[in-house]
Specification:
- This protein is α/β, with parallel strands linked by helices.
- It has one domain (2-274): 4-Layer Sandwich (Metallo-beta-lactamase, Chain A).
- The protein contains seven helices and 16 strands.
- The chain has helices at residues 44-50, 68-71, 74-77, 112-120, 193-203, 223-236, 249-258; strands at 2-8, 24-29, 32-36, 60-62, 85-88, 97-98, 106-107, 124-126, 131-134, 137-139, 156-157, 174-178, 181-186, 209-215, 240-244, 271-274.
- A seven-stranded mixed beta sheet has the order 8-5-4-3-2-1-16.
- β3 (32-36), α1 (44-50) and β4 form a beta-alpha-beta unit.
- The longest helix has 14 residues, at 223-236.
- The protein is globular.
- It starts with a strand and ends with a strand.
């Protein structure tokens, strides 16, 4: 059985669970346990305890990209004696900035404590290309950008002055093989949801996409991008959609309208199970 537990997300679904702008999934698949992203670090341990998620028993940790709201929990995780393998792209350690419409640039990269934890860690797999973590469990590595209508989803920069665009080359997705099709787990999909699904399909010999879960960074998507994204999701025949985190409320509402019965909530405490 594949079991995915939402440990960190912008919303919480039950008493004693805490929400935080960020994302973390606990994934159990064929005897292996993987933590995909770590949130900001403020609620990870609390929610894991309430959800009976044994973080110290993780066999691997994978990071979707190097933003603070996906990597902030690393330092706490690495305080344990037994540290699992860590899968990330080297660019995840680079400085990152964003510039909101009403203010100056601000740092949004991996927090210093997490960077230090990574540098001291000895079991790192740099995902500069596709990698298999365990049988049936993969990270895409860098995703080819081919759609033409997708961008990184925001005003992201590689310098504090806001002059050099950050294309987020470290953005990667996580995917798992099941007897029902492929399950794709997104951090923020800065490479584009459609680009990501095209690449996963190429890596899996065009196997059907069963579930798409995670942040889709459609928060600032215009109508054309939404239209073409929906068209692509229909083309791929995605059976279950679980938009979260940075997808944005208007985009979530549109997806719920366009795919009635296929969209599922993705708040902290949500558990997805797929029998095999």
């Amino acid at each position: 059985m594949l079991r995915i537990t939402v440990v960190v997300e912008n919303t919480a679904s039950a008493r004693d669970l805490l929400a935080e702008h960020g994302l973390a999934f606990w994934i159990e698949h064929r005897g292996h346990r993987i933590l995909f992203d770590t949130g900001q670090g403020g609620v990870l341990a609390h929610n894991a305890s309430r959800l009976n998620v044994p973080l110290d028993a993780a066999d691997a940790i994978a990071l979707s990209h190097g933003h603070y709201d996906h990597t902030g929990g690393l330092a706490t995780l690495f305080e344990k004696e037994a540290v699992p393998a860590l899968f990330l792209h080297p660019a995840a350690l680079a400085p990152r900035y964003s510039r909101p419409p009403d203010g100056p640039t601000r740092a949004i990269g991996m927090p210093p404590a997490s960077i230090e934890a990574v540098r001291q860690h000895t079991t790192i797999v740099w995902t500069e290309s596709h990698a298999e973590i365990f049988p049936g469990v993969h990270v895409t590595g860098p995703i080819p950008r081919r759609s033409g209508f997708e961008d990184t989803g925001g005003p992201f920069f590689a310098d504090a002055a806001g002059r050099e665009p950050d294309l987020l080359p470290d953005d990667q997705a996580f995917y798992l093989e099941t007897s029902h099709g492929t399950v794709v787990v997104l951090g923020c999909a800065h490479a584009g949801v459609v680009n990501t699904l095209h690449y996963v399909r190429a890596l899996t010999e065009n196997r059907p996409i069963h579930t798409l879960i995670g942040g889709m960074h459609l928060v600032s998507a215009n109508e054309e991008r939404m239209d073409r994204t929906i068209q692509a999701l229909r083309h791929f025949g995605v059976q279950r959609l679980m938009p979260a985190h940075c997808t944005g409320f208007p985009a979530m509402a549109r997806l719920w309208h366009e795919f009635p019965g296929a969209c599922v909530p993705c708040a902290v405490g949500t558990v997805v199970e797929i029998e095999e």
